[in-house]
Amino acid sequence: MLPQPAVRRPASARLRSTAMPVRPALIGVPFDAASSYRRGPALAPPRIREALHSAAGNAWAERGVAVVTRDGFEDVGDLDLPESDAAAAAIEAAIAAFDGRPFVALGGDHSITYPIVRGLRTDRAALTILHIDAHPDLYDTFEGSRTSHACPFARIMEAKLAARLVQVGIRTLNGHQRDQARRFGVEQIDMRAWQQGTRPRVSGSVYVSIDLDAIDPAFAPGVSHREPGGLSVRDVLDVIQALDADVVGADLVELNPLQDVSDLTAAVAAKLLKEVLALWHDPQ
Q1: What Å distances lie between residue 92 and 11, 48, 85, 258, CA to CA?
Q2: Cα 226 to the center of its chain, rounded Å
Q3: 5: pLDDT confidence band, cut at 50, 70 and 90?
Q4: What average pLDDT score do residues 235-260 get?
Q5: Dist. CA 44–CA 220, nearest whole Å
Q6: Is 19 helix (H, G, I), strand (E, B) or coil?
Q7: Burial of 85 (0-12, 13-18, 19+ CB in 10 A)
Q8: Cβ pair 88, 31 in contact under 8 A
Q9: d(CA 208, CA 41)
Q10: For residues 105 and 92, is the Cβ–Cβ distance under 8 A?
């Protein structure tokens, strides 16, 4: 059995209630040791929380649900993780401990998605992953590492942890990753297809992984790998709000506060987080 990871509880982790039998959980996964080019995403969870609770906004998601409330979700704090591959076991154990409870994980770099999906308690043969990103993250190895943030979806698909992988917003596909996409049967909606009107269609059990660099850097500059020509914030909100599926969990990754401008990207992350949390609540 994997050891239970230590959790650092932030000052904002005040959302405790038994009024609802099941509430989505919010967990910080401050890990960026698998990042290439720039470090910084490990600093993101508290910045997203600050934006979520900022007096600049309010508690309501667009679909008519007050989610930033005592009953809206439970913030269980941040994992205390080593800066090594040993972090993966702690991440997997923390997700497994939810035992099917819905959650949103705040990264951290995109390498965290692999141990998160390993920790899911769901039918692998029925699971679809909806992956929103500028990059397909399908490298077999990157800079000598199989656990790089450029590789998580290769690890997920080769381990048969999901039946479908649907990627939206891709605009950096190279020859190797194209071959990997064919190998794993990945369904890709790149930006050219998006502009032509193609939209994702998913059903059943769905896990949602949102990399903030999917969004054009004009709207979200606070990422390590800026890739022009991306989705708008409205585009990503529309994808989230159109989901008609059993969403089992989600992650929101690759915010780099060291590259942000006036906390703009943190505010975008908080906006997306509210709309994801709203998926588990009925409109009022």
Answers
A1: 24, 22, 12, 27
A2: 17
A3: very low
A4: 97
A5: 14
A6: coil
A7: middle
A8: no
A9: 19
A10: no
Q: Label residues 14-49 b or e (16+ Cβ within 10 Å = b).
A: ebeeeeeeebbbbbbbbbbbbbeeeebbbbbbbbbb
Structure tokens at 197: 């009107």
Q: Which helix (H) or strand (E) holds 96?
A: helix 87-96
- Rg, the chain, Cα only: 17
State yes or no: cis peptide before 108, omega within 30 of 0: yes
Euclidean distance between the first and final Cα of the chain, in Å?
A: 41
With tokens 């194209």, the residue in question is 178
Residue given tokens 């599926």 in the structure block: 245
Token reading at 142:
């990157």
Across-strand partners of 28? 78, 106
Distance CA 179, CA 269 (A): 31
Please state whether the predicted TM-score (pTM) of the whole model is above 0.90: yes
Q: State residue 236's pLDDT score.
A: 98
Q: Which pLDDT value is given to residue 284?
A: 67
25 CA to centre of own chain:
13
pLDDT tens by residue, 139-184: 999 999 999 999 999 999 999 999 999 999 999 999 999 999 999 9
Longest Cα–Cα distance of the chain, Å, equals 52
